[in-house]
Amino acid sequence: MAISGKEREAFEKKLEAYVGLDIGVEDHSRNPINAAMIRQWCEAMGDENPIYLDSEVASGSAHGGIVAPPAMLQAWILGGVAMAAGEDDPADKQRELHRLFDAHGFTGVVATNTEQEYLRYLQPGDTVRARTVIESISEQKATGLGIGYFINTRSVFKDQNDDEVGSLTFRVLKFEGAEVPAEASGDSGEGSPAGPPQRIKPALAHDNAWWWDVIETGELPIQRCAECGVLRHPPRPMCGECQSTDWDFIRSTGEGEVVSFVVIHYPEVPGYTYPLVVAVVELSEGERFVGNVVDVDPGDVSIGMAVQASIELVDDELKLPVFRPVSV
Amino acid sequence: MPTTLKNEAAIVGIGETEYSKNSGRSELALASEAVAAAIRDAGLSPSDIDGMTTFTMDTSDEIEVARAVGIKDLTFFSRVPHGGGAAIGVMHQAVMAVATGSAKAVVVYRALNGRSGARYSEGVSGGPTTSDLIHWSWYMPSGLMTPASWVAMFTQRYMHLTGCTSADLAEICLAQREHAVKNPRAFFYERPLTFEEHQSARPIVEPLRLYDCCQETDGGAACVVVSPEWAKDLPNKPAVIRAVAQGAAGNQESMTSFYRPEIAEIPSMDIVARQCWEISGLRPDDIDCAVIYDAFSSIVLWQLESFGFCKKGEARDFIQDGALRLGGRLPTNTHGGQLSEAYIHGMNGVNEGVRLIRGTSTSQPEKNEHVVVTAGVGIPTSAMILGQS
Q1: Are residues A216 and A306 in the same domain?
Q2: Cα dihedral sign for A210, A211, A216, A217?
Q3: In B41-105, at which residue ranges do the beta strands (DSSP E only) sit?
Q4: How many structural domains does chain A have?
């Protein structure tokens, strides 16, 4: 449960003290901007722009030589292995703020968005350093991940001549209820979700949570009116035929037929693999379900195709009914 | 038999902001500008307005807009749910208010930063836990979470049953683009589209391709509704509302009514169309042109069938030979529609309907005695018939 009343008031008072603070530690590039690191970054990102890679082409360009991709700005100051190990600088006010959140139960952290502004291209030989200010902390928000607070920071990057070269705003959500992930956030302050992205979880409430509990056991349940025996899906609290609120469920055989289907290409949401086939399937019991059709080329899916459901893990955590074509 | 909303009200003013991809200002600013423009166009002043209505999805409160624009005392305010299905539902509210005397002059508005702000194409994946989120929870885990994905599910089934193809959908997109090319408000003003471009565009959610999907737009649109008697004293030619109706058919879900015996149709619009004919006493043959809600190209076909312009499953035949273009049987979405003018949740379509009656569309058909204007489908929906005074 989220803290409330006087405790919350006192906590939020403490948070206020951090707004506007410089975090007290300066990040700087360990090495000057250099061609080797630019090349590795471009290889990793698949960027083949010759002004980053080919000194001959670049020297004929407006830049007069190789420049660093602007999007590398933050990469130059990241803390490397020390950061991955989660070693904190005790002087870092941002780390202190995160620990304050942790101590009040807001142990989860996720980076939500960043915006960057670039004032000039960095060139080999330049050095950069950044100072970060905690710009704002939101009021308490209810989010899909849980109750939490958004922290906005702004980092200003300067070169060896003390001229500003760019800036970066970063927003993280500190939220309640999640296990503490291995926080990879280092001195630049970004949070990082643990592990690969997962599918969007269903929101659970009184009328639907039981269905997901049964799915967890590997069965595909269909709600049934305990009074008149009519099946219904998705679950709802009353039978539309006889208005009874008593219900139980049956276990579906999972045999079905495709009523319609789509092949999703855009947008690509993290946690899903595209192109993604989603179908409306009519089960032999007569009720319809929506789910993915897997182990089939999207071009081979058709309306009327016979499919068989099975309950499977679709990522590290979530079980769903998925459908496979029945070979005939 | 609902007959009392025939000729009880008229649209006397329309207004809008520019339509863009980045308005650079708040949704409240857009709403206020559109409302003020509509009141000006009506020849009224803000203090004449005593009723306001908008979408539940609009972020600009009636009272905030009223304060910004200088509208004074209100005797009627309301909102209609279900996204674009509300587009004519809000007109229904305005007509009922004027017909019953609950208000004398109602301003209807919708404004959104649909491109630079929250984008509908990004789907329904986030947000606090609400009953809405419980509903989407039956679909999000499998990846079905955008309007394109929901509409594509119905489209695939419709194509399977009727033989309709992507080439048929292209004709809707091309006809509307032809109109948008002449409309300076339109995003695609002076930017034609070819059949080959439509067919080679990337798939968004098969069977829908890029140009089958509407735009995302920043902008606002508004109109003013008063009694036909008052309308006679105002400067613009009124668009008299011959009929207006809402409908939600049984077994309706928001965008995912996959549980009806047949899903290649939109029974909610059937209900709305039936009421429109009953109230107005008109028939499909009496309609000269139309503004048909087009969040996606395929949904235009189903609405042509709901209104009886053709038989069920035969809309692909109806639209051949340029029926939707100028000079065709039913010039449709003469502003370019939401595919090619702007996506203002159907409110820009209301304004185009009024222009068609006034005779001021940038693609003006010769005959304009009666115009059908519809709202979004796949959800509880609405429509109206406009006529000359």
Answers
A1: yes
A2: positive
A3: 51-55, 76-80
A4: 2
Residues A139 and A9 in one domain: yes
Domain containing residue A216: 209-325
Q: Residue B125 is nearest to which of A200, A204, A233, comparing CB atoms?
A: A200
B360 min Cα distance to partner chain A (Å): 38
Nearest Cβ partner for B157 among A144, A204, A303? A303
Tens of pLDDT, residues B93-107:
999 999 999 999 999
The CA-based angle B248-B254-B259, given to 5 degrees, is 80
Q: B205: burial class by Cβ within 10 Å (0-12, 13-18, 19+)?
A: buried
Q: Is residue A30 scored above 70 in pLDDT?
A: yes
Asked if residue A38 is part of any domain, the answer here is: no
- Name the nearest CA neighbour of B373 among B83, B43, B167, B84: B84
**The pair of three-digit structure tokens given for residue B226, joined into one six-digit string:** 């008063």
Residue type at A22?
Answer: D
Structure-token pair, residue A79: 């803390």
Environment class of residue B118 by beta-carbon count within 10 Å: exposed (0-12), middle (13-18) or buried (19+)? middle
> Sign of dihedral through CA atoms A260, B120, B209, B247?
positive
**Alpha-carbon distance A117 to A298, whole Å?**
41
pLDDT tens-digit readout, B300-321: 999 999 999 999 999 999 999 8
Provide, as residue numbers in chain B, all residues whose Cβ is less than 8 Å from the Cβ of A234: 135, 138
Nearest residue in A to B260, CA atom: A288
What structural domains and CATH numbers belong to chain B? 10-118+215-387 (3.40.47.10)
Cα–Cα nearest to B107, from B15, B244, B223 = B223
Q: Which residues contact A297 (CB under 8 A, 6 or more apart)?
A: none
Above 90 in pLDDT, residue B353?
yes
Examine the domain organization and report whether A157 and A229 are in the same domain: no
Q: Give me the mean pLDDT over the B152-175 stretch.
A: 98
Percent helix, strand and coil across chain A, each to the nearest 5:
20, 30, 50
Q: Is residue A68 part of a domain?
A: no
pLDDT at residue A183 in the model? 40
Bond from prior residue into A275 cis (ω within 30 degrees of 0): yes
Tell me the C-alpha distance between A110 and A308, whole Å: 37
Look at the alpha carbons of A173, A176, A178, A184 in this order and tell me if their dihedral is positive or negative.
positive
CATH number at residue A108: 3.10.129.10
Answer whether B146 sits within 8 Å of A263, measured CB to CB: no
Contact B108, B225 (CB under 8 A): yes
Tell me how far CA of residue B371 lies from CA of B174, B230, B297, B308, in angstroms.
Answer: 21, 22, 20, 14
Please give the backbone phi and psi of residue A290, each rounded to the nearest 5 degrees, phi first: -110, 130
Q: How far is CA B182 from CA B32, B175, B178, B344, in A?
A: 27, 12, 7, 19
- Rounding to the nearest 10 degrees, give the CA dihedral for residues A50, A53, A55, A58: 30
Chain B residues with CB inside 8 Å of A265's CB?
A: 202-206
**A266 lies in a domain?**
yes
Residues A232 and A127 in one domain: no
